[in-house]
UniProtKB/TrEMBL annotation:
The gene is nagB. One of its GO terms (biological process) is N-acetylneuraminate catabolic process. The lineage of its organism: Bacteria, Bacillati, Actinomycetota, Actinomycetes, Kitasatosporales. It catalyses: alpha-D-glucosamine 6-phosphate + H2O = beta-D-fructose 6-phosphate + NH4(+). Residues 9-225 form the Glucosamine/galactosamine-6-phosphate isomerase domain. Belongs to the glucosamine/galactosamine-6-phosphate isomerase family. NagB subfamily. The keyword Zinc-finger does not apply. Pathway: Amino-sugar metabolism; N-acetylneuraminate degradation; D-fructose 6-phosphate from N-acetylneuraminate: step 5/5. Its EC number is 3.5.99.6. This is Glucosamine-6-phosphate deaminase.
Length: 260
């Protein structure tokens, strides 16, 4: 696992945006897996700036959704489809046809999960998947004790995750109890996994995911099994890493660093 410690969230966003820009230069129609929440916003802002300045052309890029709430009405501002369209697709100047996502309003949710896995495979697979990490070590909505071989499926959110997400809703009671999420097995099929974490509140989860054993109790630890996984953390999120000095030295020893 490649671990990069940066000064702050903006620096992490810029570094990852540089990597995405490099990917788009090599493969203009790359399929980018995106995450929602506040953590990846610096990535999307930095990438949008590069597109608008002409530094990179994203017009042929495709966007894949990591997860979706179940039961929110179409067009709900906090459905993850709406969030991705608002924060990624529209700022990058892409059309909605570039977007692939699961149907959280489907009558048959299990069929929708299976259809989404098929859609990802038919699209050629995800080239770069952005991830965040929960305070309990979850990735996507794969809560602790999720199978490391799991596929896209419906999950029940824990009380902790619903409390963490309540800030996006008018009241905690409005947070859905169920979601569709790419499974850990699905996530691990992406060619490059990039996880961004910032803040001291993520420090213990990062330490367990990076330096602890691979365990279903810490779903993000499954990234240790991937041939190209990058974890980008600020100093606060890196504060419990025993090998933090080693990771800093490794990054500093690459003066010609061109991305991750």
């Amino acid at each position: 696992m490649e671990v990069v410690i940066v000064q702050n969230a903006a620096a992490g966003g810029e570094l990852i945006a540089d990597s995405i820009a490099g990917l788009l230069r090599r493969k203009p129609d790359a399929l980018l897996g995106v995450a929602t929440g506040s953590t990846p916003l610096p990535i999307y802002q930095a990438l949008t700036a590069k597109v608008r300045s002409g530094e990179v052309d994203a017009s042929r890029a495709r966007i894949a959704q990591l997860d979706e709430y179940v039961g929110l009405p179409a067009g709900h501002p906090e459905s993850y489809r709406s969030v991705v369209l608002r924060e990624v697709v529209e700022p990058l100047g892409l059309s909605e046809s570039s977007f692939i996502g699961p149907d959280g309003a489907a009558e048959d949710v299990q069929a929708a999960c299976e259809a989404y896995d098929r859609a990802l495979a038919e699209a050629g697979g995800v080239d770069l998947q952005l991830l965040g990490i929960g305070t309990d070590g979850h990735i996507g909505f794969n809560e602790p004790c999720s199978s490391l071989a799991s596929r896209t499926r419906i999950k029940t959110l824990t009380r902790q995750t619903r409390e963490d997400n309540a800030r996006f809703f008018d009241s905690p009671e409005e947070v859905p109890h169920h979601v569709i999420t790419q499974g850990i097995g699905t996530i691990l099929e992406a060619r490059h996994l990039v996880l961004l974490a910032t803040g001291e509140g993520k420090a213990e989860a990062i330490a367990q995911a990076v330096e602890g054993p691979v365990a279903a109790l810490v779903p993000a630890s499954a990234l240790q099994l991937h041939p190209h996984a990058t974890v980008v953390v600020d100093e606060a999120a890196a504060s419990r890493l025993k090998l933090a000095d080693y990771f800093r030295a490794t990054f500093a020893s690459k003066p010609d660093w061109q991305g991750i």
